[in-house]
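Final report, section 2: Outcomes. Of the targets proposed, HEPN/Toprim N-terminal domain-containing protein is the one most frequently requested by collaborating groups, and we therefore present its record in full.
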Amino acid sequence: MMTMGSWGELSAGPFTLFFFKDIVPNDLVCLFQDEMYSPSIGRASTRYVLGDKPDHDVEFFEYKATGRLIADRLDILGFDIDSALEVLRQSIGENLDSPPWFEGMGRIDPESVERWEAEQAALAELDTDRWLKAIASAAATQSKAVFEPPDQQPVIGSGKWLLELIPDETENARWHRLRLVTHAVPDIEVILDVSDLVYGGWLVKDELDTMPSVAQEWWTAESSARSPIVVLTEGSTDAEFLRAGLKLLYPHLADLVRFLDPRARSEGSAGALVNTVKAFAAAGIRNRIVAAFDDDGAASDALKQLKAVALPPNIVLMQFPAVPIPDYLVAQLPPSEGQHRPTEDRSNARISGCIEMYLGSDTIRGDDNVTLLMDLTFHHRDPSHYEARFADKRNKKKVQENYRRKVRLAEAHGGPLPHQDWSAMATVLKRIISAHQTES
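The predicted structure is given below as tokens.
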């Protein structure tokens, strides 16, 4: 039987960030994944004020993740750290500059004046860096109260006081608070507790393990601005390899990044990708889109066609980023103008190319673990920048087979193996994930 009302809670370490009644907001559930559902058995006294009632075991229904994972998900949902810091900076300034609330009210309460003066003194010493350090200190020293009246004035300088500097009236206040906390304390545990809603009859226990994915589907349909990023690539292998890398390196983001299969197009190339971008822009597609091009001459030439096209802000163009040249490749660099490049130039050299260049040093070597299966040439834009190409297409197939084997081993292991090289792939994926974030 349904009760008069039940409450749920979002917390990060000792901080209660958000209460909700009877219904869990869909956007809140979408912070988590089905795999983050973590039911457990614990003592009632750790959560509830029992009074004269004896302590007993109860089942808790929660979703849990580290601050680091939640931060990544918030970033990709549009609540990045730069935006949150700007909100915090403005909030500190507004709290510092605003007149006391008791001005013009006739009789002045001395305690209110004293409180306001103490807060002003604390705010005068506060900036975003000090706020982050204070939150980290509070997270390490404060314990979570079983019950804390929401209208109780917090101690100046406490975690609650710091968080309330961003007022509830601020748009997306709870997300900015959470993003700031997860930035200050990346390993903090973020918990969405819906236990009371289950006991109150508002949620069905057997549906909790899929509630995030169900909410994500609904939210995607309702809000394209918060829908998964759609990644467009030149070819089907690009999409395949990036998707596999994302699942292994960023499994907590796999449901928020979608790769459009280029096989749906009539051809796969940089020129075809340009045409797809133009079509998406002309059709007014509102989803956030990242068009990921190879970093080679063909892609650079194709991208020139888009310079005159006014693309909407939801469509971002990128080329695979150049990465440092591994030490074992330095000896194989071609000479410049008949001279071997000096050591200092080699240390600053970068290499890029097609997707195969980013599959890891353990995939682009031959069976002898030394021979490079790719050819290095000077980049079309920069003589200190090299481009990896395949003179022998059989070697390209060999690299692709090596990567697929590497992925299978990692999947069987439950994640990347210690000896595997995923550094270049991580660089590409990070560029894709952060493509729509606010620039510093």
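The CA atoms of residues 100 and 106 lie 13 Å apart.
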